[in-house]
Every structure is written in structure tokens, then in C-alpha cells.
Amino acid sequence: MPKGYVYILECNDGSYYTGSALDIEKRINEHNDGRGANHTKKRLPVHLVYLEKFQRIDDAFYREKQIQGWSRAKKEALINNNLHKLPELSLAHRDKVASRTSATSKRKTSTDITLPKAVTEGTRSTLEGNTSKKTFRSNGKLLITGEYVVLDGTKALAIPTKYGQSLTVEENNTETIVWKSFNEKGEIWFEDAFKINNPDFLKTVKKDFSVSSRLIQILKSAQILNPDFLRQNQGYTVTTHLDFNIKWGLGTSSTLINNIANWAEIDAYKLLAKTFGGSGYDIACAQNGTPITYQLINPRKRIIEEASFNPSFKSHLYFVYLNQKQNSRDGIKAYKALGKVSVSVIKAINQITKHTIRCTSISDFVDLITKHEDLIADLIQQPTIKSKWFSDFDGAIKSLGAWGGDFVLVTSEVNPKDYFKSKGFETIIPYKEMVLN
Fold first, then answer.
1. CATH number for the 134-306 domain, one of 3.40.50.150, 1.10.1670.10, 3.30.230.10, 3.40.50.1820?
2. Which residues have C-beta within 8 Å of that of residue 178, sequence separation ≥ 6?
3. Coil, strand or helix at 220
4. Which of 110, 165, 184, 362 is least surrounded by Cβ atoms within 10 Å, i.e. has the fewest?
């Protein structure tokens, strides 16, 4: 019996929703009862147009994330069983804008599941083609509220980015892992090869330097979590591709951790704990396609919920890169050295997160992020970024993640590129170009 399903629903407005479930009939009923995803509850009724069956729910989840990144045209080729069109449509794999069509016919709501022909023909093996080759992709991350204090249980607002990282694994006929990493320009920024020799497991065949050492640590940690991983002396050719500049701090490490965890069939949060550490919100962004709230209850328990954060004023929001990548481990270490944060601060940040999600005006949003900035500045005993560098800027500026580097969130009535470029900051990205949904 199948242990998991990936499904595509056609919504009442003609858009598509892709999801995964253990009980497909129950899940579709939940969608039509308004208890499903935020996207579907606003576009009822919904109708099942595509279904894939899996023996493992995690396989279904991985497939769901793959299809979610496809363009509307590619999804429709899958729905209509036009599998020969998939390769030519792959060039549009980063088109994640929700599509609508005015020509969609309206159907009657029904709780019965009637599968179209394309659903019943079993397409998974055909789509995979070469089963020895697998590709995984993870989203980048930005933490909008709760930086630092997310480590102490604050409910934080986090958003996945359109920028991410993919990892492709293909078996080769050696006992070596051949690894190549490409940047956003398609240039190789790292390469090495690792011999799989039990019990030593991995030994670099090149000079051991920092990136190789870190990669070996991740792979060894993955093997601790799954003793069967890389134990057959099977060689692999591995390539990674970044969508963003490696210095941007959008999740070079977290997307890699999540992709390797998917490959090794292990818990990404456990792999993160054994390697880079942190709250895990970046892993949650890697795995989710919408804004989320993230709350770390304890090292083994976290609450992740979809957040209906889609500000009407997003045309006035921008992300500016501060020209220096922050080391999150150093930031975490410095924060923890300050001691336990007070309950009152956690409650205050929770309220700001709540009201930020519900915010409908740019003026209220400015007030919220300014209050948040002042709270964190007082907590970590550092000046705000605006007071330190941009005191003459006509708008709000909020730090994201570890203060002093990476990106800041900026509010502005007009595109602020001229102002920031005059200050020596060349990377200014509008909200809609950065955020996944």
C-alpha cells in the first residue's frame, strides 16, 4: 500500500496547488472544508487533477518540493501526461509565480475523488528516467523578526527566498565522491574528490583545506545519523549550484545541509545540530515554500506554521546587502554570552511578530520594525544599523539575522538604489524579486 501521495489541485480561480499527504482523501476534504493551505482556502472549491503514489512519505515530500518550483506550463504538461515536454519546459523551473486563467471552467464541489487518466497511469518511474541520478533543491532564508531571541523560544517570522541551492547526485563506477560546486554565474568555486575507504570513510585526495574539512564533517555526521549512508563503497558524482552570491548569507550552509540530509534520508535538523548549530529556522525555510512562523521549544521540538504574510505595501520594501557576510556561529556565540533573555523581551517580540504578519499599512509596519530594532539593539548592546550608518535615510531600516552584515530590510516610498549606491552598497533587491511567495 502507498505510504504517501503527491497531489496537484486546481483551484476555483484556475491556479494550481501542489501538496503531499499520507491520507489523500482526508487531505482533499480538508482543503475543501477550508482547513487546508492558506492558498486553497481562499480559492474554493478545489479539484484533484494529478496524483503520484509513494512507498515513503519523505519521498512524496521531496517530490512535492520539486513540483512546487515548476512553472504553470510544466505542471500542466505533467497533469496532461505530456511527459515529452518536461525537458524543454525545465528552463522555466524558477517561475514560481501563482498563475491564474480566466478560461477555467467551474465544476461542482464533490468529496469523491475522481482521477483523470494522467493520474492513474503511474508516471513516477518514467519521470525519474535514470534512477541513479537524484536532484534536491532547498530555498534560501531571511529572518524578518526574532533574530537572536529565536534561540530562546521567541516566535519568529521567516521567509524563504527565490534564491536557493540545488544538489545533484549521480552514481559513478569508482569508490570516489567527485564533488563540484558552482556559483550563480556557473563558475566552479570549489571542487575536490574524496575516497570512500572504510573504516576511515572519507579521505580527501587533494590538499585538506577548510571547505573540504567542513564537507567531510557534514558527510561523516550524516553517516552517524544513517549508518547505511555511503557504506557500500559506491562512488558518486556530486554537483551543487547556487542561485545567489556566496557572500550574501541567504543560506549557503543551510541549503547544503538540507540537501545532504535529503540525500542521506536523515533529519536535517539533527544534521544541523551536529555541524553548524543554530535555531533551525533556516532549515524550515529550506523546506517550506511560504512565509512561516518558527518557534524553538527545545532542541527536539519546534513549531512551524504557515504565515499569511503578504504585505499590500511590499512594493515599498527592499533588501540591501551590506557588503560583508556575517558568521552566524560567531553571532550566536556572542548572543549566548549575554545570558538568558528576559520573558518580557520574548513576549514583546512575539507581539511584534503577530502584528507584523497582520499589518496592512506601511506606517504601522515602520513602527513595528523600528520598535523591534530598538529592542534587539538594547538586548545585544549595539547601535541600530540606521543610527550607525544611515541616519540621514528617509525610511526605516531593520537588521536581519546576525547584525552588522548580510542583508537589511528597508522601507522606502521610492526605489532607494541611488541613496545606497552613493554609500557604496550596490546590491538592492525589491521584495517581490527576493521572496518566494
1. 3.30.230.10
2. 172, 193, 235, 236, 237, 238
3. helix
4. 110
Q: For residues 251 and 397, is the Cβ–Cβ distance under 8 A?
A: no
49 vs 2, 6, 17, 117, 421, CA distance in Å?
A: 18, 11, 10, 9, 48
Distance from the Cα of residue 158 to its chain's centroid: 10
- Please give the Cα distance from 384 to 366 (Å, whole number): 14
Q: What pTM does this model have?
A: 0.70
Secondary structure of residue 307 in the 3-state scheme: coil
pLDDT at residue 129 is higher than 70: no
What SS3 class is residue 39? helix
Per DSSP, 8 falls in state: E
Cα–Cα distance measured from residue 19 to residue 13, given in angstroms and rounded to the nearest whole number = 18
pLDDT digits (tens, 9 = 90+) for 236-266: 999 999 999 998 989 999 999 999 999 999 9
Q: Write down the domain spans for the chain.
A: 4-129, 134-306, 314-434
Closest CA to 236 of 151, 180, 178, 188: 178
CATH number of the domain located at residue range(s) 314-434 in this protein: 3.30.70.890
Q: What is the pLDDT of residue 109?
A: 32
Amino acid at 293: T
Task: Provide CB contacts within 8 A for 48, sequence distance 6+.
Answer: 7, 8, 9, 24, 28, 113, 114, 115, 119
